[in-house]
């Protein structure tokens, strides 16, 4: 028994827990405690294997995988499963990649729990944008140049154009953190340029942020479609756009001056 002697996690409760971007060291201590106290864990495809390894043996785990483009359980059945488990007296952890409050369909799950009278709470996590910036060694904001940070999803129904406010997004004073944007790279690049962003606006692509197979590349807005096609594998990737992303990395430690003779 843990979770502050289970006071914060009685039977019949649901915790929506942020699993972070993949590296188990980026899990909060609270998330780890909740995972260790759960009697059942429902998790996404995006939860890293190192995080799943923290689930004690014998605790039931249910993969309710969601990856864009792949078939997955629909949201309503996930809502139903977590509510039913809680009503059956389980301590339910719903483990979600990154932060549960960012493009994580948490509202549906919160509402389903509340409608059924099931106590529910959120444990925040490190979102992919933060991990991607850390991997790049760059900041998401930049004093004087990027004073605004926009979290946006570029997920669209198959065959439909993205329904985004391009005029508002094409702000040279903002950093865009674009989730689920890899497949839409061509459209993103074209629409943002049409709406006024310079073709040489810096763009970074970060795949598998925080995991051992993390890959990143820094390019420019007009070359984004090419980079997304040629430079990435099949892992989840974040697209970052804006001046902050292109800011020169910290200067390397100076090389020792040549010895004088
Ligand atoms: N709640 C999550 C986001 C879910 S949407 C969060 O806060 O991070 C899923 C999208 O998140 C993916 O398509 C990808 O764009 C991004 N993502 C999640 N994990 C990632 C990772 N480790 N590296 C890069 N992008 C990631």
The CATH topology of the largest domain: Methyltransferase, Cobalt-precorrin-4 Transmethylase, Domain 2
How many whole angstroms does the radius of gyration measure? 21 Å
Write down the overall geometry.
elongated
What CATH architecture of the largest domain would you give? 2-Layer Sandwich
Task: Supply the CATH superfamily name of the largest domain.
Answer: Tetrapyrrole methylase, C-terminal domain
The proportion of strand residues reads 15-25%
Distance between the termini: 68 Å
Say which molecules are bound, naming each kind only once.
S-adenosyl-L-homocysteine
If helices are DSSP runs of H or I spanning 4 or more residues, what is the number of helices? 9
For the report, how would you describe the main beta sheet?
5 strands, parallel
Task: Spell out the key features of this protein.
disordered C terminus; binds S-adenosyl-L-homocysteine; Cobalt-precorrin-4 Transmethylase, domain 1; elongated; single chain; five-stranded mixed β-sheet; alpha/beta; 261 residues; Methyltransferase, Cobalt-precorrin-4 Transmethylase, Domain 2; 27% helix
What report would you give on this structure?
This protein is an alpha/beta fold and 261 residues long. It has two domains: 3-123, 3-Layer(aba) Sandwich (Cobalt-precorrin-4 Transmethylase, domain 1), CATH 3.40.1010.10; 128-260, Methyltransferase, Cobalt-precorrin-4 Transmethylase, Domain 2 (2-Layer Sandwich), CATH 3.30.950. 27% of the residues lie in helices and 20% in strands. The strands form two sheets. Strands 3-2-4-1-5 form a five-stranded parallel beta sheet, sandwiched between helices. Strands 6-7-10-8-9 form a five-stranded mixed beta sheet, with helices on both faces. The longest helix is centred in the N-terminal third of the chain and has 13 residues, at 75-87. The radius of gyration is 21 Å and the shape is elongated. The N and C termini lie far apart (68 Å). Mean pLDDT is 90; it is low at 250-261. Bound molecules: S-adenosyl-L-homocysteine. S-adenosyl-L-homocysteine (SAH) binds next to helix 5, strand 8 and strand 10.
